[in-house]
Specification:
Helix content is 35%, strand content 22%. The protein is an alpha/beta fold and 453 residues long. The chain folds into two domains: 252 residues, UDP-N-acetylmuramoyl-L-alanine:D-glutamate ligase; 177 residues, 3-Layer(aba) Sandwich (L-fuculose-1-phosphate Aldolase), CATH 3.40.225.10. Strand 12 and strand 13 form a beta hairpin. Keywords: ATP-binding, Kinase, Nucleotide-binding, Transferase.
Length: 453
């Protein structure tokens, strides 16, 4: 008997851009990002480039008629909910796409690709002026600082000049402009969204890597994908910026050059949630079986696990209500849930800033017996004085301070971080581990080495 089909309905997005044989930018980046964001990606290829993570070796621009045929084929068949443009290469192509844009009934995101991240030029100088015609029909333009300067003459060096460049772009008729800050020096990246309604700034710490190949394409595609889902522009930009930040931090180590952004990082993160939760359940089962009562602090023990790409406590799994001592041993109060931990989760995430391979943290008791057992661990145990921690405790500052001090004192990644407490703060040992097995081994080694009372 034949099975009934179960089709999956999702919005369609169209990218009009060049192909990257290296797979990190252009059409390839756009389609991966759209798929990761839950859209069905379609494409019109403007040029074929021979490139990799080290640079562009050659490029071949397709005839305008062939590009128009691809666009017509998509628009005549699909209900396209958003369009994104990338490498348009020449003035005739920009003009042709502008003609298409004039009749579009969908949001249009224009990424004015002019130069590759490697420094190779991807747009003829004659095509620069024609961009104004295209922008007049666009929902959003996403230039980096260099592209914004070419389009407006404004040298983008800070937030004020980014706003100035964005306001100049609005004069072309574009609905809004996102002036990206990745090319502006500094420890923090500021992407500035300028619209008639006002200015929004999206700011985050810079990731210390050169693996940004495909970042502009990925950001514009992520925003277009959210617009295809019907998100308001500000929300779409916020989601896109967050998506790219994670894609750059957890970039793909491919090629002989710096590497590529990880277009599927959000999808991989979602896929990792179930096995991460199951791993916590298995660790808890082992602790119950071994009866780790002597290591359970007064506040209760928790086992926290982060997905490989976790960036906030909501992406860590933990025991809701913690693990507590009973007359017959230990037991979890409730089940495992994502976002169930605050302090231990924030400590783990802060430690991951220094060693992203860390996945697990367990808070244990600290007293004289535990102190004497720390030598049983397979790595260094670091003591911290909580009377020196930051005040006031703004969100995340204490845990970040603990992690920075611990890594600095251990000259690497410690197996455990302990403190003797402070007024209103119980003494705690925090065990860190890269995987569930190591977390279990370290806690059970600690429990097994406890001297007799």
């Amino acid at each position: 008997m034949a099975r009934n089909p179960a089709p999956d309905a999702r919005p369609v997005a169209l990218t009009i851009a060049g192909s990257d044989s290296g797979g990190g930018a252009g059409i390839q980046a756009d389609l991966k990002t759209m798929e990761a964001g839950g859209a069905f990606g379609t494409s019109a290829v403007t040029a074929v480039t021979a490139q990799n993570t080290r640079g562009v070796e050659s490029s071949h621009v397709l005839p305008v008629a062939e590009i128009e045929a691809q666009i017509d084929a998509v628009l005549s068949d699909f209900d396209v909910r958003a369009v994104k443009t990338g490498m348009l290469a020449t003035e005739p192509i920009v003009a042709s796409v502008a003609d298409v844009a004039a009749d579009l009934d969908a949001p249009l995101v224009v990424d004015p690709v002019m130069v590759a991240a490697t420094g190779d030029r991807l747009l003829d100088p004659d095509a620069e002026d024609e961009y104004e015609t295209l922008l007049a029909h666009a929902t959003l333009a996403t230039p980096n600082a260099d592209e914004a300067e070419v389009l407006t003459g404004v040298d983008v060096e800070d937030r004020a000049s980014a706003v100035e460049a964005g306001e100049a772009l609005l004069e072309t008729g574009v609905d809004a402009a996102l002036v990206k800050g990745g090319h502006v020096p500094g420890d923090r990246v500021r992407d500035v969204l300028v619209a008639p309604e006002g200015v929004e700034t999206f700011e985050h710490p810079r990731v210390d890597t050169d693996a940004t190949h495909g970042s502009g394409c990925t950001l514009a595609s992520a925003i277009a994908t959210r617009l295809a889902h019907g998100d308001p522009l500000v929300d779409a930009v916020a989601e896109g910026v967050s998506f790219l930040e994670r894609a750059v931090r957890y970039h793909l180590d491919v090629g002989e050059g710096p590497g590529s952004v990880h277009h599927l990082v959000a999808l991989r993160d979602r896929a990792a949630r179930q096995p991460t939760g199951e791993a916590v359940e298995e660790v808890v089962r082992r602790f119950v079986e071994a009866d780790v009562s002597p290591l359970v602090p007064e506040v209760g023990m928790n086992v926290v696990a982060a997905t490989p790409y976790a960036e906030d406590p909501g992406e860590t799994a933990a025991v809701e209500g913690r693990i507590t001592r009973t007359l017959s041993g230990v037991k979890p109060n409730r089940g495992v849930r994502f976002g169930a931990s605050s302090h231990v989760a924030r400590f783990l995430l802060s430690a991951r800033e220094f060693d992203p391979s860390l996945r697990f943290a367990v808070n244990c008791r600290f007293d004289d017996r535990v102190e004497r057992a720390l030598g049983a661990l397979d790595g260094p145990a670091v003591e911290l004085d909580r009377t020196e921690e930051p005040d006031p405790d703004v969100e995340g500052s204490t845990m970040g301070w603990l992690a920075r001090r611990a890594v600095g004192r251990a000259d690497g990644t410690p197996a455990a971080v302990y403190d003797r407490g402070d007024v209103g703060k119980e003494a705690v040992t925090r065990v860190l581990a890269p995987d569930a097995g190591t977390a279990v081994d370290r806690v059970l080694a600690l429990a097994g080495a406890l001297p007799d009372e």
